[in-house]
Design brief:
Layout (H helix, E strand, L loop, with lengths): L2 H18 L1 H11 L4 H31 L5 H5 L7 H32 L7 H7 L5 H17 L3 H32 L5 H23 L6 H28 L3 H20 L8 H28 L1
Length: 309
């Protein structure tokens, strides 16, 4: 990878990690507002270290190592920077398994948002699909069946990886649904700061999975993922403290995050089936999609300000 592509990849990772964690920042801010100053400081300092080095650092490394068992731990970490033909061959062989796993997860994440989650609708189609929530599970089942069928024609491990991607999605979705219930209880309870800190750390781990899995659409390099997602996690923490009220005003930012997830998931699935996708496409697509919805959010914000005067 040349330096321009490395910088482009890191920038794309930072933007993607930031916008995909907007909901996380808002929940963090709401819960932190009910905690003591000492507990807030602990979360913002030590919680950041845990978020960056333990979750966003350890998880991508484990994923690469588990999908490429022929590599040792150090080789898995530095695989994409290695010039060893054996290492490169191992990564090339295992990449479709990793990519179809991530692509399946991201595609289901998008369709769940499209069908079943509350949203600020920008496109007419979003309003239509929001009224068809009951069809999400049918769409998810058909998509999984089709992708697994074609994957099995190539490699049984690819078919298993697609199923595993859907399994991880539903597990994470279950944790988040429970988190919504727990958040509602916390806001009106006298739970200890320790309990709230534990809740926030677990919640942060579940939200980080989106960013970590989506990062593999940008690169298979664990060091680059660690840098990009780490900086993104720091930005999210800063937004939690300083600008969460401003984030809420960008009403279509979540839309941009979800459409970028759709594109990244599609890129990962296409790549897993042997279509050669340019490395620069993921960050460029992320910039364009997020930039468009950010621009539309600013326009909507100005309209609201004009209307209120």
């Amino acid at each position: 990878m040349d330096w321009l592509l490395i910088l482009l990849t890191i920038a794309g990772l930072i933007v993607f990690e930031t916008v995909s964690s907007v909901d996380n920042a808002i929940i963090n801010a709401d819960v932190l507002a009910t905690m003591s100053l000492r507990a807030r400081r602990w979360f913002l300092v030590w919680g950041l270290i845990i978020a960056v080095f333990v979750v966003r650092g350890l998880l991508p490394w484990l994923i690469v190592w588990m999908t490429t068992p022929s590599l040792g731990p150090v080789e898995a970490l530095l695989a994409t920077f290695s010039s060893d033909p054996a290492v490169l061959a191992a990564i090339e062989e295992s990449a479709p398994i990793l990519l179809i796993f991530g692509g399946m997860f991201l595609i289901l994440l998008f369709f769940h948002w499209l069908f079943a989650e509350e949203k600020n609708c920008y496109l007419r189609s979003e309003r239509f699909f929001s009224r068809q929530a009951v069809w999400f599970y049918a769409v998810a089942s058909v998509l999984l069946s089709v992708i697994v069928w074609f994957a099995l024609q190539i490699d049984t491990m690819m078919g298993f990886a697609a199923v595993l991607g859907s399994t991880v999605f539903f597990i994470v979705h279950g944790f988040r649904k429970n988190a919504e219930v727990q958040e509602a209880r916390m806001m009106g309870s006298d739970m200890s700061d320790v309990s709230k800190l534990a809740y926030l750390e677990i919640l942060d781990a579940t939200f980080s999975i989106d960013g970590v899995i989506g990062a593999f659409a940008f690169t298979l390099s664990v060091p680059l993922i660690l840098i990009g997602n780490g900086v993104g996690a720091f930005v999210v923490r800063e937004l939690t403290v300083r600008g969460v009220d401003q984030i809420r005003k960008f009403c279509y930012l979540k839309n941009g995050a979800m459409y970028s997830i759709l594109v990244l998931g599609t890129i990962m699935l296409a790549d897993s089936f042997g279509f050669r996708i340019p490395t620069w496409l993921s960050p460029i697509a992320t910039f364009i999609i997020v930039g468009f919805f950010l621009f539309r959010s600013v326009q909507q914000q100005k309209k609201g300000a004009i209307g209120s005067t």
